[in-house]
Amino acid sequence: MDEPLRVGLVGAGPWARTVHAPGLADHPSTRLSAVFTRREEAARELAQPYDAEVCTSLDDLLGQVDAVAFAVPPSTQAELAVEAAKAGKHVILEKPIAADVAGAERLADAVAGAGVASLVMLTLRYATATRDWLAGLAAAGGWTGGGVRWLSGGLLGGAYAASPWRQADGGTLADVGPHAFDLLDAALGTIERVRSAHRGPNDLWHVVFEHAGGALSSATLSLRLPMRPTVVEFAVYGEHGYRTLGRKEGGAAQSYTAMLDDFAAMVDTGTTSHPCDAHRGLHIQRLLDSALSLAR
């Protein structure tokens, strides 16, 4: 690219401060140009170290940038990202991409209609270890099942425990469900059906999936168990044995950089399709909705 992408950041919470802002500022193909949040003082505090403009409205931000990164609750993202896409701005989205399927459909349709690039920050998918693991699974083939265990006390305390959308609206399923469902889908084939889902005490989820080709998988998830260290393990099994993948602590920054590599390449080449684009976000949203419906 001849010039770095001018990227505006919507949101100024912990994730915006620790991952989005430094990632956009440090990447050679992007520049953090502007910040908007409904709390102007928070926007000013985030923007100041990067010499970014503080915007008082989304329209103000959209007039200054080529792309927009969102670090806001799902319902807010679904509303504002539609406006950004319709304005012709490429978008970096958080997971889940909306609060419900209807919102995700509107967002995916807006992205498609505008012909802009989109990526969802499914953190694990951009890690080199994950990409190598998935490539090895695809080369070997013959996988008949698998599962994920993601057990943590992340919503009992820490930087994200006070997040209203996690505590009141989404909880475990909305927060880590997208990562778990996405990676099982990528490893074993498209998830065609959520066969069962149960939500127990401590927001402990047990979800069973049926994949294209007949593989079965399961997810056991909770962010309200006092687990130290956090347990994150993906596994598949079949004719080539049993293969696992863990999560490296502190890998969000590296994954964000890898995502920006892909994002900049998409914009530079006019590509709008990617394994982790807005349409992928819609697919994951439908799986989340199915799990919620079955657990009621």
Describe, in short, the structure shown:
The protein has helices at 14-26, 40-47, 58-62, 74-86, 101-114, 128-140, 164-188, 252-269, 278-295, and strands at residues 5-10, 30-36, 53-55, 67-70, 90-93, 118-120, 143-151, 191-200, 204-211, 216-222, 231-238, 241-246. By secondary structure, it is an alpha/beta fold.
Protein described:
The protein has 296 residues and is of the alpha/beta class. The chain has 2 domains: 5-122 and 253-276, Rossmann fold, CATH 3.40.50.720; 128-247, 2-Layer Sandwich (Dihydrodipicolinate Reductase, domain 2). It contains 9 helices and 12 strands. It has helices at 14-26, 40-47, 58-62, 74-86, 101-114, 128-140, 164-188, 252-269, 278-295, and strands at 5-10, 30-36, 53-55, 67-70, 90-93, 118-120, 143-151, 191-200, 204-211, 216-222, 231-238, 241-246. It has a 6-stranded parallel beta sheet, with helices on both faces. Helix 4 (74-86) runs parallel beside helix 5. Residues 5-117 form the Gfo/Idh/MocA-like oxidoreductase N-terminal domain.
